[in-house]
Design brief:
By secondary structure, the chain is α+β, with helices and mostly antiparallel strands. The protein has a single domain (12-148), classed as Peptide Deformylase (Alpha-Beta Complex). The chain is built from three helices and eight strands. The strands form two sheets. The chain has a five-stranded antiparallel sheet, sandwiched between helices. Strands 4-5-8 form a three-stranded antiparallel sheet. Strand 2 and strand 3 (68-79) form a beta hairpin. Bound molecules: zinc ion (ZN). Residues 88-90, 130, 134, 159 line the site of zinc ion (ZN).
């Protein structure tokens, strides 16, 4: 198990456009494993490579239905809308209300480079949108409708 340091808001790496992954080698597998370890240790439900300082298009997500490792992911279809609480491991101690699609279909590659497609609904859709935004330098705080404060009851999970 190897964890990496999570980059926090204010670091310019979180604001850059991540590059397409071209090499599906042991380094990529190690990165994805480290990202999963880092996410679980921090009790997160998702983590994007820029959050550990690596500007590559790779994310891990686990909202309770198993671990997904997605390389070069893109949203190919989205439906509906949901508004709910959201947090981010790179924005510690804060959360906010964010509108997201209720369903997304994501096209990606797995760690071997094989093409995959996954469908996420509700909270899984929210987590996918949140992580994919990280690859384009976007944070949930850019999109939130309002901040949630400690005395509110609707704190979000951290991604
Ligand atoms: Zn995040």
């Amino acid at each position: 198990m190897a964890t990496r340091r999570i980059v926090e808001i204010g670091d310019e790496k979180l604001r850059k456009h991540a590059k397409t992954v071209e090499k599906f080698d042991w380094r990529l597998k190690m990165l994805l494993n480290d990202m999963a370890d880092t996410m679980y240790k921090a009790n997160g439900v998702g983590l994007a490579a820029p959050q550990v300082g690596i500007l590559r298009r790779a994310v891990v997500v686990d909202v309770g239905d198993g671990l997904f490792k997605l390389v070069n992911p893109t949203i190919v279809r989205s439906e509906g809308e949901q508004c709910g609480p959201e947090g981010c491991l790179s924005v510690p101690g804060r959360s906010g209300m964010v509108s997201r699609p209720n369903l997304v279909v994501v096209h990606a590659q797995n760690e071997e480079g094989k093409e995959i497609e996954i469908t996420g609904e509700e909270f899984f859709a929210r987590a996918l949108c949140h992580e994919l935004d990280h690859l384009d330098g976007v944070l949930y705080v850019d999109k939130m409708e309002r901040e949630i404060f400690d005395d509110d009851e609707e704190k979000g999970d951290e991604e």
